[in-house]
Amino acid sequence: MGKGITEAAKQSSRTYDMLEGMVRLKAQEYIQDILEEEVELFLGRKKSERMKTIDGTQGYRNGYGKPKRFALMNGTITVQRPRVRGTDEHFESKIMPYFKRRSKEVGQLLPELYLHGLAKGDFNLALRGLLGEGAPLSASSIDRLKAKWQLEYKEWKNRDLSGLEVVYQWADGIYVKAGLEKDKSALLVIIGALTNGKKVFLACESGYRESKESWGGVLRDLAARGLKLGSLTIADGHLGIWSALSEIHPKGNEQRCWNHKIRNVLDCFPKRIRSEAAEYLKRVPYAETLKECVKRRDAFIERYGKSYPKAAEKLLRDWDRMVTFYSFPKEHWVHLRTTNVVESPFSSVRLRTDAAKRFKKVQNATAMIWKLLQVAEKSFRALKGFWLLADVYAGKKFVDGRNPCETINKNGFCHLETP
């Protein structure tokens, strides 16, 4: 028990550290954008646009100053102040000196700036608290900063996907409190594994409680942009995704998440024996072969089925979808048994959004969460056994995690059996 708590605490700490890095990165981008806005207001024109000033002198940009590092409470950010030449009035940033004096306050406000940055009122409030009342933040400049996120998200949603070779996809409906209206309560997310071993976000859409219609809309949109779904989909037991897949991707294989299954089965036990039952149940999906997996399942049912028939019923329900992973390379099983590929990056999203007030508009929250996930994507690790992904993509068959056409000779080398 103590070891489990320690490991959970370490994982929580790693998640928090990762999120804080994301927050610092986005805050750095915000601040740099605001510095650009400050110079535009000073010169009276946008970057690369030349215009005569009232007194006839010509002001212009002259590159950037040296990168400046600011130590905050939770890390360091680096920004560059734009330089201005050819003006009678000396340009002095109202933002940079303020930062240097208020590093403590900046560190405390970073999470608020990041989380509430897309709701106009919150954005203004956070930036005023961060930069001071004298900062040149007009309503139009705030709108432009906000619109930048929306534009990036829109471009991402419309990008061509025909060049992606997807082998597996994980789908999950994530429920977060921030920004999703009552009739748009779930965020539907799909992550794909490519033949090169990389994992990428394929979809991030708000939807109505993981319904068949919502999932169907997401899948049809991906297909319309040229995406060919992989041979295996990993998801939880919600009927919406499976119903949509049966119509849109009927030839694909399906794997239900074992984490969700285990939780559902254990809910049928009283607390006094739940820990004991969990030890036996968790052994089931880690059997080396499908035959052994079934044997462990039956042993669990024999031990607990008479006293807790609902637990046995839940374990047997949708069994064929629980053991599909045995038909794929053993090296990939660790990724295929659960939806952890989706759950892991979202643990950091929940860390920030669970205690947050709601955004007024769904698209604002969706774009914010999407942006955070885009940063998380950069730290994704390649799948274990990535060299076998091309074989799966090519349609090779596997039994108990091995290609039946391959044998291992006495020197440990793989070769194909001759017919």
Short description, anyone?
The protein has 419 residues and is α+β, with helices and mostly antiparallel strands. It has helices at 2-43, 96-101, 103-116, 120-131, 139-157, 212-224, 239-248, 258-266, 271-281, 290-304, 309-316, 319-322, 333-336, 340-353, 362-377, 389-393, and strands at 60-64, 68-72, 75-79, 82-85, 166-174, 186-194, 199-207, 232-235, 253-256, 406-408, 414-416.
How would you spell out the order of helices and strands? HEEEEHHHHEEEHEHEHHHHHHHHHEE
Put simply, the count of helices is 16
The overall pLDDT, averaged over residues, is: 76
Helix content: 40-55%
Low-confidence stretches: 107-112, 114-122, 351-360, 415-419
Roughly what fraction of the amino acids lie in strands? 5-15%
Principal-axis shape: elongated
Give the biggest beta sheet: 5 strands, mixed
Provide the spatial order of strands within the biggest beta sheet.
7-6-5-8-9
Structural class: alpha+beta
The end-to-end span amounts to 53 Å
Radius of gyration: 26 Å
How many strands in all? 11
Number of domains: 2
Explain what this protein looks like in three dimensions.
- This protein is α+β, with helices and mostly antiparallel strands.
- It folds into 2 domains: 11-148, no CATH class; 157-377, no CATH class.
- The protein is built from 16 helices and 11 strands.
- The protein has helices at residues 2-43, 96-101, 103-116, 120-131, 139-157, 212-224, 239-248, 258-266, 271-281, 290-304, 309-316, 319-322, 333-336, 340-353, 362-377, 389-393; strands at 60-64, 68-72, 75-79, 82-85, 166-174, 186-194, 199-207, 232-235, 253-256, 406-408, 414-416.
- The strands form 4 sheets. A 5-stranded mixed sheet has the order 7-6-5-8-9, sandwiched between helices. It has a two-stranded antiparallel ribbon with strand order 1-4.
- The chain is elongated, with a radius of gyration of 26 Å.
